[in-house]
Write a structure and sequence with these properties.
18% strand, 6-stranded parallel sheet, SIR2/SIRT2 'Small Domain', globular, binds adenosine-5-diphosphoribose, 236 residues, Rossmann fold, alpha/beta, 2 domains, single chain
């Protein structure tokens, strides 16, 4: 019998217990930096060095953090289910925990690409360069001669992989949402594409802004919530 499909949408909350701060909790990244300045295409054109330094700092932090039990539990779902992770996170903790099918909606911190390259839904990943945890500086050029920039989807830019994500969510038997405030579109609207009969589980210690009869809110941090999710699956 074909295995059930689970789509797992994650946000910063799944990495919180690894020590990576979220964006909108008290003391979060956007309390300390203005996203329009450090995470928008306008910000890039105004001050490339500021953004290169901001992402160099975040990339270097990634060297010192590890996947947590929630990342590992999401990867372990693959033993019994056909799993696709759709993450808003730019860290590589799902990869390092062993998940094998991951869609990074907002890019990847460990990668850079030419500032002037062809970037659309058919984006040729060939232009993307994996630099691991290393910094990139003003003057570091891509093979096509343009400045290397973080492979991140900034505010004001398109989300080329959203069509693929919609396809995954609409084809899933179960939708699991872990650790996102559901405040940034189009990612926040993905739940609407869940198939009519597909249950939706949301793991978050805070209130969630959705009121839909298909939703089961597991009010817990990601590690504990994943244990409770597995229990609910066993009994469903
Ligand atoms: N376990 C689970 N959820 C948690 C935990 C935890 N330990 N700690 C916090 N959360 C929840 C918060 O309650 C909140 O709902 O995680 C969510 C974090 O929300 P945000 O900080 O807004 O992060 P996210 O939803 O991923 O942001 C989306 O915004 O700035 C952009 O591109 C950025 O991808 C990011 C997008």
């Amino acid at each position: 019998m074909a295995r059930k499909k689970i789509a797992v949408l994650t946000g910063a909350g799944v990495s919180a217990e690894s020590g990576i701060g979220t964006f909108r909790d008290n003391g979060g990244l956007w309390d300390r930096y203005d996203p329009q300045v450090v995470a928008s295409i306008q910000g890039w054109y105004q001050d490339r060095k500021l953004l290169l330094d901001f992402y160099n700092m975040r990339r270097a932090q990634l060297r010192d953090v590890r996947p947590n039990a929630a990342h590992r539990a999401i990867a372990a779902l693959e033993e019994d289910y056909d799993v696709t992770v759709i993450t808003q996170n730019v860290d590589n903790l799902h990869e390092r925990a062993g998940s094998s099918r991951i869609i990074h909606l907002h890019g990847e911190l460990t990668k850079v690409r030419p500032e002037y390259g062809v970037y659309d839904e058919t984006f040729s990943e060939a232009e993307v360069i994996d630099i691991g945890f290393e910094p990139v500086h003003l003057g570091d050029k891509a093979p096509n001669g343009s400045q290397l920039r973080p492979h991140i989807v900034w505010f004001g830019e398109a989300v080329p992989k959203i069509e693929k994500a919609v396809e995954v969510v609409s084809g899933a038997d179960i939708l699991l949402i872990v650790g996102t405030s559901l405040s940034v579109y189009p990612a926040a609207g993905l739940y609407r594409y869940a198939a009519p009969g597909a249950p939706i589980y949301i793991i978050d210690p805070q209130d969630v802004p959705l009121h839909d009869s298909r939703i089961t809110h597991i009010r817990a941090v990601a590690t504990e919530g994943m244990d409770r999710f597995r229990e609910l699956l066993k009994n469903s």
